[in-house]
Amino acid sequence: MSYKFLFCLFALSVFCTIKFFQILYSGKKIKAHNRYEISGNGTIDLKDSVINGNLIITNDSVRIINKTTNISYDFSDPSFQSLIINNGEQNLKLYRLKELDNKIYRLIKDTLSVKIFDKNISFKLDKDNIDYNNLVFKTDSKVFESITFWTTSTKKRIVKILNTIWHTHLNPKSFKGKEDLMNRIIDNDESIYPAVLPSKKSAHFQKINNNKAPT
Question: How far is it, in rounded angstroms, from Cα 21 to Cα 89?
Answer without folding.
Answer: 39
